[in-house]
């Protein structure tokens, strides 16, 4: 969340304590994590040297969150790949790429939450919401499979055999009923013409 106001200044002392200059009180890493979640920007300075240590403090917050049971966001494969980029020629591109990816993810997350809120009246994602999502996913998969069958003759033939064995109307015939009727009419006309030519 972008903000026009100056970021809050946090000072870190030698005893590892963090001092919130806005509230004139000591805070914990958990408190700082809460500030991030609420969209409040802050910078952390080493109280003695004045060095900006915001990056290392944020990294420590992530480390602590990852250490909690069920809180893992960073897959092991991702962490390994990230380590490989240090010192690599691509290192300079990685931060911007990650920022861009996270911005897009945040935008999509907001859109998804908004759509779900409209669809389910702002209620939490309960059983009904999840059932609706699963039903929509199954419907989408069915549409995809049906479309795939139309473009894949081998799959279509196998499906036709399966439908015939089950006594069902073949999917291809159902999808092209009008064309089938025209073909039958043409065949009937050909038979009539053949009969006429033989009777002469």
Helix segment tally = 8
Mean pLDDT: 76
Order of helices and strands: EEEHEHHHHHHH
Amount of beta strand: 5-15%
Looking at how many chains there are and whether they match, the oligomeric state comes to single chain
Kindly, what is the distance between the CA atoms of the first and last residues, rounded to a whole number of angstroms?
89 Å
- Global Rg: 32 Å
Global morphology: elongated
Give a structural overview:
The chain has 200 residues and is α+β, with helices and mostly antiparallel strands. It has eight helices and four strands. Strand 2 and strand 3 form a beta hairpin. The radius of gyration is 32 Å and the shape is elongated. About 3% of the residues have low confidence.
What order do the helices and strands come in, and which of them pair?
Layout: E1 8-12, E2 18-20, E3 25-27, H1 29-37, E4 42-46, H2 54-67, H3 76-85, H4 94-119, H5 127-151, H6 153-165, H7 171-175, H8 177-199
Parallel strand pairs: 1-4
Antiparallel strand pairs: 1-2, 2-3
Helix pairs in contact: 1-2, 5-6
């Amino acid at each position: 969340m972008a903000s026009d106001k100056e970021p809050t200044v946090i000072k870190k002392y030698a005893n590892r304590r963090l001092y919130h200059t806005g509230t004139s009180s000591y805070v914990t890493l958990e408190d700082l994590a809460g500030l991030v979640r609420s969209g409040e920007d802050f910078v952390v300075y080493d109280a003695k040297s004045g060095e900006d240590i915001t990056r290392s403090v944020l990294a420590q917050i992530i480390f602590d969150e990852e250490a909690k049971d069920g809180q893992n966001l960073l897959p092991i494969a991702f962490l390994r790949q990230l380590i490989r980029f240090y010192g690599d020629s691509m290192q300079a591109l990685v931060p911007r790429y990650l920022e861009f990816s996270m911005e897009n993810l945040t935008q999509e997350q907001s859109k998804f939450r908004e759509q779900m809120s409209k669809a389910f009246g702002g209620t939490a994602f309960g059983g009904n919401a999840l059932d609706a999502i699963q039903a929509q996913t199954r419907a989408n998969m069915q549409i995809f499979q049906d479309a795939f069958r139309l473009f894949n003759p081998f799959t279509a033939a196998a499906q036709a055999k399966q439908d015939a064995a089950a006594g069902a109307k073949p999917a291809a015939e159902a999808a092209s009923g009008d064309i089938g009727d025209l073909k039958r009419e043409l065949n009937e006309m050909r038979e009539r013409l053949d009969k006429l030519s033989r009777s002469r």
